[in-house]
Amino acid sequence: MGGGIDVFSISQSRQDLDRIARIMDILAKFEAGQLADRLRLGEKLPIRRSKQKALPEVMHKTPQERFRLMLEELGTTFVKFGQLLSTRADIIGPEYAAELSKLQDSMSPFPTDQAKRIIKDELGKHADELFLKFENQPLASASIGQVHRAVLKNGHKVVVKVQRPGIEATIKEDLRIMHYLARLAQKHIPETRKYDPVYLVDEFERSIIKELNFLREANSGQRLKDNFNDDKGVNVPTVYNRLCTRRVLVMEEVEGMSLSKVITTHSNKFDKRAIARKCARIFFKMVLVDRFYHADMHPGNIMVLDNSVICLLDFGRVNSIDKETANDLFKLAFYAVEDDVNGLIAHMLRTGMAVERDDMASFKADISDVLDAYYSKRIVDVKLGEMLSDLVTILVKYDINRPRETAELARSILILEGTCTELDPHFNIAEEFQPYAKDLLPTKWDTRKLVEVLKDDMLDLEYMARSLPLALRDFMRKMEDGRLKIELEHKDLMVFSEDLDRISDKLSMALLVAALIVGSSLVLRVSTTFGLAGFLVSGMLGLWLALKIIAY
């Protein structure tokens, strides 16, 4: 990561200094110029103070809107950073997350000659040698790369994604600066520490470096295809691995209708409710069975083929999730749908998401308010994504631990719910989720019956059965290594200790006075002067000790 970047390395790079000066100008344009002052950039780097004035048209904007517009002007890297932040409502709050979700990734296309040159550099052959046909007009152009239609020598239609020239160097330069600014923010701006800017930039770097490597996207596409290999209702485009490199990705071109167009069409050709239900089932299968899921199922990333086959596109944002994390989040949703506040909080305590706290009554009341707002005897009235988002807001308020995987999964559910609702305004993802709930519980009994009779006890037993062996093994290992620590705290022990310190001090002084008296008596036989001096000092110390005892 970029943790090793220091002031000296930044100050020695004219390119870095010019970029930071440009960033300061943009901050000032969006009424964030004071941020540069608080970061103390002028004290640390040889750069001028920005003279840029705030734009009049941004004055009436909300802070969230100004932040989004500022990121757009800062360029590709910061737009990508904003898109990552939009998935972390648990950290930045739902208002900022909602605004940042509007960030667009489109950019003007770069010349086709450059795309062909990159293909030659990466694959060792000219595009004309690899493809029977290569369309010069890009199909789409984004910040990381652009897509061209092509035809392989065997006649198969494909799409070719080529990385934008110079984008990797640009992003890495910006990452250097972002790491530096994040450390300054954490050091000089106390209110940013709760967001942990250094951690956020580290997380962003991991994400963007993965996205720059098209081989990862190719591998993700192949893995999803393997997972749905036996499902005729789902299609994932074939990846041509022999033509894929870090900067070039070649995949099968799929012919169908984008889900965005399906949503707006008035044709009776598509059963939109059935498509919505299928999308939900695909998502739950990916999360709960495969533990590997498409995290960005918005309409632009889904196509509908003949016979309403669902085709997943764009594998740049996919996530793995362990079984325990997935089950924990969906159990949380299960309690929320059942309007069970006590069960929901108990589950948070069981999983370590929350701990016992002094303001537990207030915490419980806030969760009750959230669930009351969604409470209905008809499950179709419950919006699962909105409910989870509101619960995340409560977690933010009480600074409760929110694992990154949990926040990303909650965001993915919200995106999916939005997609399905666009298809069918009456669609409800909670209703589609309910059949999966019984598989999350430690029994195959009827879910409703289990909720009424044994839900809490069985969940506790399940959690104990999973965690007890690990806890015992950890306990035994610490005992064997001599690292077992026992902490004992007593409320009145400190008072007793202070009293003991005072008594020992006075006893020591009394022994010193007694020693001086005895010593002075012996010295008096040899030297009257020293003997009397000793008695004088003993008397003064004795008087001081007597006064201290009386005062106490």
How would you portray this structure in words?
The chain is α+β, with helices and mostly antiparallel strands. It contains 25 helices and eleven strands. The strands form three sheets. Strands 1, 2, 3, 4 and 6 form a five-stranded antiparallel β-sheet that branches. The chain has a four-stranded mixed β-sheet with strand order 5-10-9-7. A two-stranded antiparallel ribbon has the order 8-11. A hairpin with a 5-residue loop joins strand 9 and strand 10.
Task: State the main characteristics.
552 residues; alpha+beta; 5-stranded antiparallel β-sheet; 4-stranded mixed β-sheet; 25 helices; 11 strands; 61% helix
Strand % is 5-15%
Span of the ends, CA to CA: 60 Å
SS field, number of helical segments: 25
Q: Estimate the mean pLDDT confidence.
A: 78
Oligomer: single chain
The helix/strand class is: alpha+beta
Estimated helix fraction:
55-70%
Q: Which sheet architecture does the biggest sheet show?
A: 5 strands, antiparallel
Radius of gyration: 33 Å
Low-confidence regions? 442-447
Shape: elongated
**Total strands:** 11
Can you summarize this structure?
This protein has 552 residues and is α+β, with helices and mostly antiparallel strands.
SSE blueprint:
Elements: H1 7-11, H2 14-29, H3 33-39, H4 41-44, H5 63-74, H6 76-85, H7 89-92, H8 94-100, H9 112-123, H10 127-130, E1 131-134, E2 140-141, E3 145-152, E4 157-163, H11 167-188, H12 197-212, H13 214-227, E5 234-235, E6 248-252, E7 257-258, H14 259-264, H15 272-290, E8 292-294, E9 302-304, E10 310-312, E11 318-320, H16 323-337, H17 341-351, H18 360-374, H19 384-397, H20 404-423, H21 429-440, H22 447-453, H23 455-481, H24 493-524, H25 528-551
Parallel strand pairs: 5-10
Antiparallel strand pairs: 1-3, 2-3, 3-4, 4-6, 7-9, 8-11, 9-10
Helix pairs in contact: 2-3, 5-6, 5-8, 6-12, 11-12, 15-20, 15-21, 16-17, 16-21, 17-23, 18-19, 19-20, 24-25
